[in-house]
Design brief:
The chain is α/β, with parallel strands linked by helices and 347 residues long. It has two domains: 8-126, Rossmann fold, CATH 3.40.50; 131-289 and 327-344, Dihydrodipicolinate Reductase, domain 2. It has nine helices and 15 strands. The chain has helices at 17-28, 42-52, 61-65, 82-91, 106-119, 133-144, 173-189, 296-311, 320-339, and strands at residues 8-13, 32-38, 56-58, 72-75, 95-99, 123-126, 150-159, 193-201, 211-218, 223-229, 249-257, 261-265, 289-290, 293-294, 343-344. The model has no long low-confidence stretch (mean pLDDT 95).
Amino acid sequence: MPDRSAPLRLGLAGVGRFGQLHAAVLAQLPGVELAAVADPDPLALRRALERHGVSRGYGDALELIDDGDLDAVVLATPDEQHHQQALAVLRSGRALFLEKPLAASWAQARELQATASSRGALLQVGLVLRYDLAHRQLWQQVRSGAFGDLVSIRCQRNCSRSSFAAIADRVHTVFRTLTHDIDLVLWLSGSRVVRVMASDYRQGDHLSPQGCFAMLELANGCIAMLESSWYVPSQAPANVAGQHAASCIDAELAVVGTERSAKLRWLDGPLQIWGAGPVQRPDTCLWPVLDGQVAGALREQLADFSRSLRSGEPSAVADLDAAVEGLRIAEAIITSAASHQPVDLAG
């Protein structure tokens, strides 16, 4: 366990669009020192080092992981690199914060969990929606019993068509978007998924479908419906700031219980800005940036990781078992869509 009186020395691998947000948070967190950064892009690496006053920079994540002066590592690298890099961190016995998805398969996820357990290393996965205030308020009411028995959960996460090219042949839609919603279902329901039925919509022969739709049966009788597509037009309100242009994620969560129901729409944020282009609806919840300071759920998530690192106890919010089980369900959705048959997970 790190010295409680000294700053936690964290290394960050990956300073792309999302990694830059991690860097800004880690550089600002009390009791945390962003001690090293890695990225294969020399320009991105130099900018991160200069912006946050970091002295040690590496061109490869594995070089950073070999830095024995670090208390923990944060990985915000491309999805396909997670498994190898995470294994290297965990085998060293150090703590790891790993952006979702945990791995590229359920088998890899189980291997990472087993390695963390055998080495006594803390492993926390980025389940950022669990740290958003609105989602947490809803979870608190549902889990308190105020909704009665859960009847249904419906999750929608539709993205700008302009964003599809970046993931089309690199990662499946289920792993890119629906892993968020699978986790919401597990978190809100507190129940297991026992049966999966899914379909997808494809144009062309890409790895990823442009649309994916699933129905999940839960052990507690609740039915969950998941939807994700990449056809939101450019005229839609912009609520995601990109490196070159803003885009839209049209996300909605609806929960129906025998006593109450609720709906949460991320696109209906409190701030709207009108101008010559699409209406701007800046994020005020997940990772809003003001005067260079990153707040919201991402900051809360990394602060939670630092608290767990100090205490030596796993997070009470980011459930590793759920992150692993989520990949089992993700694979079942892909299998069901490809076979046009339901997949039984009861066993």
